[in-house]
Amino acid sequence: NAGVMQNPRHLVRRRGQEARLRCSPMKGHSHVYWYRQLPEEGLKFMVYLQKENIIDESGMPKERFSAEFPKEGPSILRIQQVVRGDSAAYFCASSPLPEGTYTGNTIYFGEGSWLTVV
Amino acid sequence: SQQGEEDPQALSIQEGENATMNCSYKTSINNLQWYRQNSGRGLVHLILIRSNEREKHSGRLRVTLDTSKKSSSLLITASRAADTASYFCASNSGGNKLVFGAGTILRVKS
Questions:
Q1: Contact, A35 vs A43, CB < 8 A?
Q2: Which chain A residues have a beta carbon less than 8 Å from that of B4?
């Protein structure tokens, strides 16, 4: 049973370009979470999605960032017009149950996508 | 200030010694979890403790939770060089998000 798969693992973008990060949840998991980790910091919640729905996007920056989890295919985190401050590790996690961590069920993290903006 | 703050920020010990890391949080929680992260890698779930639990063990790990002080500790006994990593606490206060602390960098010297 493959874990949460993220790609690319490393991505370099010039300022103003777009970054697309993909996440395939574990088999049987229909709940996906995106977190961002800035250098020397802990992870910060960005968005929680179920298939075709954004459930909680309270941690998403208001501009340039968007996320989707289509009926078919991976979840995508899209960052438009990247700036140097977007350089970070972006982690995806998935869970099998609707309430994820609320009920104390473990969520499973991918290996992350490291974005560097030059 | 930030939810889930950890101390110390960095800890260096000799192999075989015990390592203790502390975490504080601000709001009431449903559960608190500890994760390990090796450099450049994803997070590995270590242990979860619910708000009605005070202590939990898993192998060489021991976690305590004091809801009156809004704090938790992670103890790694008989540390090994392979335990070298960053350790994060993450609190869940309801809903679907975890609030992570800034982490403790543990270095175990052989």
A1: yes
A2: 42
